[in-house]
Amino acid sequence: MNIHEYQAKALLKSFGAPVAEGVPIFSADEAAEAASKLPGPLYVVKSQIHAGGRGKGKFKELPADAAGGVRLARSIDEVVQNAGDMLGNTLVTKQTGEHGKQVNRLYIEDGADIDRELYLSILVDRTVGRPAFVVSTEGGMDIEAVAEETPEKILTLPIDPDAGVTDADAAKLCDALALSGDARSDGMTLFPILYKAFMDKDMSLLEVNPLIVMTNGRLRVLDAKVSFDGNALFRHDDIVALRDTTEEDEKEIEASKFDLAYVALDGNIGCMVNGAGLAMATMDIIKLYGAEPANFLDVGGGASKEKVTAAFKIITADPAVEGILVNIFGGIMRCDTIAEGVVAAVKEVGLQVPLVVRLEGTNVEKGKKIINESGLNVIAADDLDDAAQKIVKAVKGA
Ligand code: ADP
Ligand code: MG
């Protein structure tokens, strides 16, 4: 689960990290009052969407040479003007995809006098099985280019979870970021604070880009992007309360209500499969035959007819879906339950696209009978290979 920058900053501040003063707003009328609470004379108006690259982003509704999704303002009037320009419009950044994201919230922040922009993140480094800091002196808006072109400018420092961030670790990070004087003592305090926030809140990513050295020599967290481990959310009600579902894929929200493992993808073949392994294999084989899956969907082991119906409805509601492949190997999940769910869902929402069904395993005969007697226009398949070829052919022929 992701949260907005202003929420991440409030969270990091509660752990003691230095962040700027700021006020989130939801409508342009709130802009003047929000700005008047800040010291000025420099303000920053920041689009709050769950994607980075906002500074260099472009608004669909504004001329191509208009400023991006993070703007400096030198007076309260300019804050108000920029807020009106940005709210309600669609921001396209490197991370949003071409559809962009509508900006429904802004963060009005105190402007900082920046000397240097650094990069810092904490993530789970799977190669060493530990949390790790990733830092670079080359922070700011082009860290992806640094990673590609000059990877030697990036330091990855795994942390021993039993010891936490030791003074020696913090010193290494300070060295890598070339911090001296006040900035160095700020860093020695800040790095353990960020690590504590990461661990206590079960984050999967904490990215501060940029972490800045200000002209007064002090450190400040200027941007913050935080993701949480979904499997640990049950123990963080305070984090769940920060969820902004308008930022999430509607189909994924619907799926989460039914406890379905569903991930929306860009292709046109909707998949309903049981078991994550079989779901992955199904996606692979669709690709092998030259098409793209529209989703990953694992209906799980003991799914009920209602759950299967919900899953089928989510797939058919996706306008990108031009064909559906149901691929079930009945073990704990019984083929007749799947068949009943599919038939019930089709009766409710209709079927506008070709449907290939491959059933195998427990109660397969019952399942096939239910489908055959339903009068549905189903293309039957014998095995995974056959099923994939048939759905790809049906979609490409259409
Ligand atoms: P994004 O990474 O989505 O582009 P950032 O929050 O990193 O958004 O902002 C982009 C750039 O805008 C920063 O690299 C920094 O140069 C500038 N900036 C952001 N916030 C402030 C601020 N409070 N004061 C001064 N400059 C800022
Ligand atoms: Mg940034």
UniProtKB/TrEMBL annotation:
For the ligand (substrate), the binding residues are N274, G331, I332, M333
Give the E.C. number(s): 6.2.1.5
Q: Name one GO cellular component term.
A: succinate-CoA ligase complex
- Give the residues the record marks as binding ATP: K46, G53, R54, G55, E109, A112, E117
All residue ranges annotated as the ATP-grasp domain in the record: 9-241
Q: At which positions is Mg(2+) bound?
A: N209, D223
**What's the record's note on cofactor binding?**
Binds 1 Mg(2+) ion per subunit.
Q: Which reaction does it catalyse?
A: succinate + ATP + CoA = succinyl-CoA + ADP + phosphate; GTP + succinate + CoA = succinyl-CoA + GDP + phosphate; (S)-malate + ATP + CoA = (S)-malyl-CoA + ADP + phosphate
One Gene Ontology term from the biological process aspect of the record: succinyl-CoA metabolic process
* Superkingdom to which the source organism belongs: Bacteria
Question: Function of this protein?
Answer: Succinyl-CoA synthetase functions in the citric acid cycle (TCA), coupling the hydrolysis of succinyl-CoA to the synthesis of either ATP or GTP and thus represents the only step of substrate-level phosphorylation in the TCA. The beta subunit provides nucleotide specificity of the enzyme and binds the substrate succinate, while the binding sites for coenzyme A and phosphate are found in the alpha subunit.
How does this polypeptide assemble, per the annotation? Heterotetramer of two alpha and two beta subunits.
Name of the protein in question: Succinate--CoA ligase [ADP-forming] subunit beta
Q: Which organism does this record belong to?
A: Hoeflea prorocentri
